[in-house]
User: Which sequence fits this backbone?
């Protein structure tokens, strides 16, 4: 539950407040998912919270509620290749700016990400998914969609355990990487994968 969300003050000046967050900056495999949500002015939902604080079951329920209740939402999938080309920070930033600039928002709240090329008034909020209803909702959309994607990869490549670690560099994931080798879904610019590429050269 988010007590006194930032939207309460923002709605005094703006009708359409867009909150944005992402899932998947840290993993060595799988895409980055960036989401943005605008709720109707005055909207409240005590169950919405930072996705990391919610169980998978609660996230799935809230996912459907958010899609139903949101005035606007958008999700962008950023490929592993684009992450490698731009670096994860810039890939996240560009995806958020793209969502913001194509939305009908009057004001934008992002989770700890400055948006220098956003054409709409915006503010970067540290731990925004714990302070903003729309950022928290965006974190849920991004997390659920990315988890579904990683579960699909697990179905294709069960030996890697993607459904359990979701692409994060756990001990078992690194062991699987060294045992079974690289897949197209791995981020080649991330150190454990980059080290594997170097080993293959010798």
Assistant:
């Amino acid at each position: 539950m988010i007590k006194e969300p930032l939207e309460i003050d923002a709605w005094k000046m703006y009708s359409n407040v867009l909150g944005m967050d992402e899932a998947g900056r840290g993993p060595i495999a799988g895409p980055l998912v960036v989401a943005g949500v605008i709720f109707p002015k005055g909207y409240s939902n005590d169950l919405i919270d930072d996705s990391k604080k919610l169980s998978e079951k609660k996230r799935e329920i809230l996912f459907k509620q958010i899609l139903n209740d949101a005035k606007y939402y958008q999700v962008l999938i950023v490929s592993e290749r684009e992450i490698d080309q731009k670096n994860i920070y810039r890939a996240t930033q560009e995806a958020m700016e793209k969502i913001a600039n194509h939305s009908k928002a009057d004001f934008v709240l992002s989770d700890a990400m400055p948006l220098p090329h956003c054409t709409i008034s915006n503010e970067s909020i540290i731990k925004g998914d714990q302070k903003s209803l729309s950022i928290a909702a965006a974190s849920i959309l991004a997390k659920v969609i990315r988890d579904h994607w990683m579960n699909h990869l697990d179905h294709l490549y069960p030996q890697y355990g993607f459904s359990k670690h979701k692409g994060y560099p756990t001990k078992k994931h690194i062991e699987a990487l060294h045992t079974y080798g690289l897949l197209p879904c791995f981020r080649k610019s991330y150190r454990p994968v980059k080290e594997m590429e170097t080993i293959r050269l010798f």
